[in-house]
Structure formats: C-alpha cells, structure tokens
Amino acid sequence: MTVRMKRSFPDAAIWLALVAGALVMLFPIYWMAVTAVRPRAEIFEALVSLLPGRVDWGNLAELWRRQPLLGWLTNSAFIAVVAVIITVFVNLLCGYTFAKFRFPGRDILFFAILGALMIPIQVILVPEFLITAWLGLLNSPWGVILPRAAEAFGIFMVRQFMVSIPDELIEAARLDGAGEFRIFLRVVLPLSRPVIAVLVIFTFMWRWNDFAWPLVILTDRDSFTLPLGLNLLRGEVNPEWGQVMMLALLSIAPMLLIFLAFQRQLIQGIASTGLK
Amino acid sequence: MGTMAARWAKRRHKLVPYVFIAPNVVLFTAFSFLPLLYAVYISFFDWSLIGDAEWLGVGNYTRLMRDPLFWRALVNTLLYALATVPTGMAIGLALALALNRKLPGRTFIRSIYFLPVVVSAVATGTIAAWLFNDNYGVINSILVRLGGSRVAWLSTPQWALPSIAIATLWVRSGFNMVVYLAALQSIPRIYYEAARIDGASATRQFLHVTLPLLGPATFLLLVLDIIHSFQVFDLIYVMTGGGPGFSTTMVVQYIYKSAFVTSEMGYASAMGVALYVLILAFTIVQWRASRQKENVL
Fold first, then answer.
1. Which residues of chain A have a CB within 8 Å of the CB of B275?
2. pLDDT confidence of B296, banded at 50, 70, 90?
3. Residue A63 lies in a domain
4. Do A150 and B24 touch (CB under 8 A)?
5. pLDDT digits (tens, 9 = 90+) for A90-144
6. Which of A21, A211, B124, B165 has minimal CB crowding within 10 Å?
7. Is residue A9 pLDDT above 50, yes or no?
8. CA distance A262 to A132
9. What φ, ψ does residue B163 adopt, rounded to 5°?
C-alpha cells in the first residue's frame, strides 16, 4: 500500500504538469480558431476576453470578397498532389534500384544523389531561381513542383525498406518472364505499402507547407499558394487579424485532418529517419 | 539468331538500373548539382541580374569577411541556436521520460505535444505574431490583467529573438520528444531488470542505463536541430522580417535580402556557399558518428 502511494504521488504530479503543458501547447491553435470566428470589434478590444463570445463568419466572408481564396486553395492542392505523385514515384523507382540492382557506379551515384539533394534550398536560391526563370516557369506551379521533385530522404527511406524484400520473389517473377518495370509495379510496390504511406504523407506535408521556394517563384497574387496568401495578409500595414487567422485555420485544417488520420505514420517517419 | 537476341536481352537488362534512376539523376543534375556549381561561379562576380556581370575574383568572399552585417547575422544565428537547441532537447527529453510512464491518457497527451509538427512554419509564425502583438495580442492582454504592463514583444530588439525562440520551441519540443520516445522504447527491458536485481535505485538506473543509451538519439537531435536552426527562414520572415533593425536577421534572411531585395546576386551566392560549407561540416560529423555507431553495434 505504501509502495503504491509512493509511486503514485510523483505520477500524479507529473500527470498534472503534462496536462497543464498540453493546454499551453493547444492554446495557440485555440486562439487562432477563436479569432477566426470573432466579430471584428471584439478582436480589436483593448483587453480581449479569453472566451469566445458570438460566432461570426464575417471574417470568412470578407476574406472571400477581398482575396482569390479559391485560387490559392486550388494552387496549393495542385502543387501538393502533383508533387506527391511525381516525387513518390520517382523516389520509389530510384530507391528500388539502389536496393536491388548491382551495377557499375552504383555507390558513387548513390552518394552523389544524396549529397546533391541535401543541399539546402537557401544555398542555391539564386542559381535555382535563374534556372527556373530560364525554363519559363516563374509564376507557374511547375516552377514550384519540378525543382523540389527529387527528395533525398525519400530515396534513402525507400532503399532501407526495400533491401528487406526477399530477392527470391523478384527472381521468381523474372523467371516467369515478367519485364523489369512490371516486376516493380506488380511485385515490389504491393509489398511496399508502409513506406509508400510514409512517403506520401511527408511529401504532401512538405509541399503543402512550403514557403521559401514558392515565395521566390510565385510573385503574381493569383498564382499564390495558401502560405503565400497568409504572408500577404499578415504583411499588410494594419493586418485584419480576424481574416489572417481564418486563412491560417483554412491552411492548416487539411494538415490537422492528416494528423488525426495518419499520426502513426508521421511518428514512424520521424523516429526512423529524423526527418521533418 | 537466338544468341543475338539473347545478347541483346542481356545488354538491355544491364541498362535497366540506369533507366530506373534516370528521372532522379535528371532532376538532381538540373536542380541541385548544376545550381551548386552555378552558385560557386556567380559568387565570383558582381551582378545585379540587369546588365553585365563584373568579375571580382574572391572579392565577394573578402567582402563577406569584413561585412559587419554578415557577422551580425552569423551571431544572431548562433544566438538563435543557443536559445532553441539545448532547451528544445531538454524539454523533448523531459516529455519523453514523463510520457514513457504508464499514465492515464498518455497517447492523447503525446498527440497534443506532437501536433505542432504538422503546422506550417508560416502558420506558426503568423499565429505567434498575433499572440505577441503589441496592442491587441492576448499575451499582453493577460499580462495587463495580471497587473503587469505591456511588452513590445516583436518591435524591440531584446524581446524579438526570445519571442521567435518560444515559437520555435512550440514546434521543436514535440519533434524532439518523438525521437527520444523511440529511443527510450528501444532500450531492452532486461537492462533495467538486471540493474534492479543488482539493487540499483531508480536514479542510478536513469544515470547508468537510460542516459548512456540515449546517447545516439541525443547526438542525432543535436546535429538535426543545429542544421535546422542554420536554415530557419519561414518563421522569422513572417514574425519579424528580420527586424527590428537587424536584430533577428539570420544568415538565410540576409541571403534572401541580398538576392531579392538589394539584387546582389554574386554576394548572395557567396554567402550561400559559405553557409553550405558550414552545414556540410555538420553533416559530415553526423555521418561519421552514425557510421561509428553502426560499427559498434
């Protein structure tokens, strides 16, 4: 009995501290949501009340009237979805090759690709911008998608995962006369569902949340993504904070849903490779 | 005939891996490898995009060494790393240790701490800018209600960086927690049982079993968090834009300003190359250390 009490006292204190901390962590999200649906007059009171008063959709209506909201949403979705399709496919194929083929120059190519792709975008911002401009892709979603389509972490993760696929399965398919690409599609990919899921989720998150690169490439307001729109609204001389928070809410809502649905894959991705 | 077809099939088979990696090689050549070479090349010129480029030799690099703003940006970056990396790791470790216990609702509590990881840096920065707003921000509002006075969080140099650091910790703590939790869960139970049989107290178990076995995770996080703090851009861009004055301008901000505000492409490229050397040094350290780790295991 005393042993249990001794154990449970610090546990209770730790639990209370954790819950208090969790409330602090949730507060910014709560405050964003509350501000988004508050009447303008309430937002700009000298001493704002912590509890929401009346729910008011005026911020959304005004945002819709002033900005090409639907266009921003479409641009964000188009870039994220197309980037996921290209990146995931290209990285799966590349990771599979490095995991299952032996060919001259393999190791050098592997390190060259990883090394080159680990170059942070800020380092090559200027030449990357010039090349994209030269290709005529400024203000185009493709100018955002293509330069970031190959991801080092994706190749690395796929390779690690596919090394453990038994060679016998691939050999058996080869003896049956299946072509190499068919083997990849029909034998290897169905066995790789877990790594594909992690890859899809992370690529979507990266492209959906992207800012520095689109900021350089997309300068026309109609070509903006949601983060760029958010930056535009927040950068106004007197920001309409209700609208800013409404846009913030809209821009993170899909990620929150993905978080609720795929938290396990997100944790697994971070824990296994330290990526973010 | 038959042998020729067989030979052709064999040759085609040899080409398969190259065909499979071709899309990636094309992308990385066009958008990573060439830009890096191009960056080095541009860094030897004075060039404003319009008009001819003027050869400077290492002029941009000597300017870099003498530019007080560059050194200020480097110091700001180090201050930012000092303010966010050790604290973020300590909070992450504390959370992981606490949430590794069997507590009611721990999965749910873990999720809450982890949640900010999916929120974009721009949204994080925007929300933080609103919370820290001088006139209408809720933090000042609470301060006043508690009898304090308003603080100009984002418009005074001494408070701007701490505000940014707090916003960073909001995101990074949960990230660090996840890595530490994974490390904690991979420690075999049998170690603790052996320590208990030897009569080791909970404190001794922590000091002699848990902490040493968390070494690799700590090292990984240290490198990742330092590299992350060298690259921070989005959050600061929307929170302070590098200001007030130059007080929160990091190296990456300075690169962006030089390239797209004052249009000094050569100088911006030289700074990019310098930053790459710094990051590369850390990556190599990490790579060698993780190889050593694999050799030990």
1. 120, 122-123
2. very low
3. no
4. yes
5. 999 999 999 999 999 898 888 887 777 667 777 888 889 999 999 999 999 999 9
6. A21
7. yes
8. 34
9. -60, -45
Indicate if A78 and A53 belong to the same structural domain. no
In the predicted model, is pLDDT for residue B297 greater than 60?
Answer: no
C-alpha distance from A24 to closest chain B C-alpha (Å): 9
Mutation site for A-interface testing, chosen from B118, B143, B233 by largest number of A Cβ within 10 Å: B118
**Measuring CA to CA, which residue among B3, B131, B53 is closest to residue A130?**
B53
Question: With bands split at pLDDT 50, 70 and 90, how would you rate the model's confidence at B292?
Answer: low
* Chain A residues 19-58 with CB within 8 Å of chain B: 19, 21-22, 25-26, 28-29, 31-32, 35, 43-45, 47-48, 50
Spell out which residues of chain B touch residue A103, defining contact as CB-CB under 8 Å: 14, 17-18
Is residue A177 within 8 Å of B58, Cβ to Cβ? no
Q: How is chain B split among helix, strand and coil, in percent rounded to 5? A: 75, 5, 20
pLDDT at res. A133: 92
Predicted pLDDT at B228: 86
Q: Which CA distances in Å does B158 have to B76, B135, B140, B221?
A: 12, 18, 16, 28
Residues B218 and B251 in one domain: yes
* pLDDT greater at residue A75 or residue A151: A75
DSSP string, B83-151: HHHHHHHHHHHHHHHHHTS--TTHHHHHHHHHGGGGS-HHHHHHHHHHHT-TTT-HHHHHHHHTT----
Tokens of B48: 């404003």
Q: Find the angle CA(A259)-CA(A264)-CA(A267) to the nearest 5 degrees.
A: 85
Does A231 map to a domain?
A: yes
For residue B219, pLDDT beyond 60: yes
Mapped onto helix, strand or coil, the DSSP state of residue B59 is: helix
Q: Please list every residue in chain B whose beta carbon sits closer than 8 Å to the beta carbon of residue A41.
A: none
Q: Do A86 and A223 share a structural domain?
A: yes
On chain A, the residues whose CB falls within 8 A of the CB of B201 are none
Q: Which amino acid is at A86?
A: I
pLDDT cut 90: percent of chain B above it: 48
- B129 with B164: CB under 8 angstroms? no
Instruction: State the ipTM, two decimals.
Output: 0.90
**Domain housing B6:** 2-42
pLDDT, chain B, mean: 88
CB contact, 8 Å: A262 with chain B?
A: no
